[in-house]
Amino acid sequence: MRVIGTKYAGLDSAVTLFDSVDEKFLALQSDRVSRIKKDNLDIDITLKYLISRNLIPKKIDIISIPFSNFSGQDCILEMQSPTFFFLKKEKIARKYIKPKYYKDLIDVDFITILKSKLDIRWIYFNICHKIFSFFRQNEKLNKSYVKKTIKKIFKDNNIEISKIEFYDHHLSHAASCLTIDNFNKKETNYIFVLDEHGDLNHSSFFEWKNNQLKKVSNSKIEKFTLDNRDYVTSLGAVYSNFTEALDLRRSVDEGKVEALAAYGKPNKNLLKILRRIIKVNKNELNFFIDVKNYKKFLTLNKLKKFRKVIGDKNFSATIQNFLEISVIELLLIYKSIYNFDKIYFAGGVFANVILSHKVHIALNLKAVNVIPYMGDEGSSVGAAVLSLINNGENLNKINISMPYIGDSYTDKETIEILHKYKNDINFNDLRENWINEAARALKENKIIATFYGNMEFGPRALGQRSILANPFFKDTRDRINLQIKKRPWYQPLCPSILEEDREDIFEKSFYHKYMSTAFKAKSKFKDIIPSALHVDLTARPQFVTKESNYLFWSLLKNIKEKHKYGVILNTSFNLHGRTNVLRPEDALIDFLDCNLDELYINGYKVEKKI
Ligand SMILES: [Fe+2]
């Protein structure tokens, strides 16, 4: 059976292929292909890339979509008829704008806007978009246009599809947990999903028992329009309202709010207001949101006023603290009923690593397992899993080696690109010896980039598309943040650590290889690995074993010889506003565009010509 799970348009759009015929499993986010961070177009560009790389069959049995509600009630544009016209408009506009990276979408000049707006096709689709938006609460119309849009994307790429299946959004998030190797399908497991909204819900709790996923309870959103903008009522949406009130990018920069929160203190008055508006409903096991007071206090204009009074750090600390205590309160009730000692988390809100860390401690659990593709790219994986289960396919037939399930490049393809850039670089073929050379560079406090094997799926780079540096030096974090990635000073960088050193470094921990939850380090490590720990001593580590990534493990072992602990700073290989590099050429472009010292790509050492 060949199944494609896909969030076919919008933020986090992605294609995942489960092919039990050729025993293949791969996944790719669309913004990796376009390199426009959090791109909101459809998967057309991703399908074209996969076809050009011979990675996708021409006949697909099922297309699985991780949404199922066509009522037009929750602002999910992907499930409404205007989407069809929105995508047409966007593509026409981009023919004139020709964006290469995210900044090009912002820096649009008057002439390019004028050109696209004078395009007769743009005018036509704009009128249709407006008309269909008026009818967007018509379920039949929505379903017919959503199907039409999906079919067209595949038809335009000469891919034959037999049927389309739609699955509940949170059920899809939950099903994605079945693909991580520590999810024992024979045991009873519990999954909590929390995102901004999807199919009218924002939180759901699931029980996996006897090979079935059963929803225990969920929290509903409500939608309203105020000051010409749509609002939904959810914990995730409130966090994003705070993000936007801080003049940051909604649904993109929440990690910056989380990082800044560690420098502030929750404001008691604002926290009181939040706690009054969003409450845990003990009888229904969900969140209750008082919409009347939400409209009064939690809209953008109101929040901007709060921000002004209490300052950015305290403003961030308040929403972070509120999120933590609300989720912990609900999960404590679930724990008292189901008595679990570990839990699985999915949904975009769980990109917040401090949240899962606080749950781990407060509920005294053995482990909290945050799925590494917690955002909507992961719901594509889950929808495909549901199709496989419902159509009688054996999941165990497919070898899933998460999260290295992206594309890889051969030696021949790599050398071709290196020759293309020969005027700008010197390169050497080191084969396996690149590990020793990379370790030498790190010991000399150089900042390097690595590119080898299959690309990771999800937001984290786990060694194979990474920027690496030495955390034992104090200035490393600032050098990466300010000189290379152009990120705010307060954003932490994450370490990759030998699993054998985990218990020495952290207070309470468990084996976790995905860099998707935080742990608190013992205080003496503040001076030992100063660049790897945040101001509150937390870190979001990847623990590495020989089995999980042999080359990366070897590199860490080499570092341990000098520094006593096997720790390396590891951040995704991309520059500001760009996505993690996918192709060798992306790696060369980013390497040449910043102050990186050396690049190690598929066994070649690359340096810039002076
Ligand atoms: Fe979601």
In a few lines, what is going on in this structure?
The chain folds into three domains: 2-81 and 135-171 and 380-397, Nucleotidyltransferase, domain 5, CATH 3.30.420; 187-370, 2-Layer Sandwich (Nucleotidyltransferase, domain 5), CATH 3.30.420; 411-608, DHBP synthase (Alpha-Beta Complex). The protein has 23 helices and 24 strands.
The structure class reads: alpha/beta
Please provide the count of β strands.
Answer: 24
Strand order of the largest sheet: 15-24-23-16-17-22-18-21
**What is the 3D form?**
globular
Q: Give the DSSP E fraction (strand runs of 2 or more residues).
A: 15-25%
What is the CATH H-level superfamily of the largest domain? Carbamoyltransferase, C-terminal domain
| Main sheet characteristics | 8 strands, mixed
| Fraction of residues in helix | 40-55%
Radius of gyration: 24 Å
Count of alpha/pi helices? 23
Taking pLDDT < 50 over at least 5 consecutive residues as the criterion, the unreliable ranges are none
Look at the structure and give the CATH class of the largest domain: Alpha Beta
CATH fold name of the largest domain = DHBP synthase
- Mean pLDDT across every amino acid position: 94
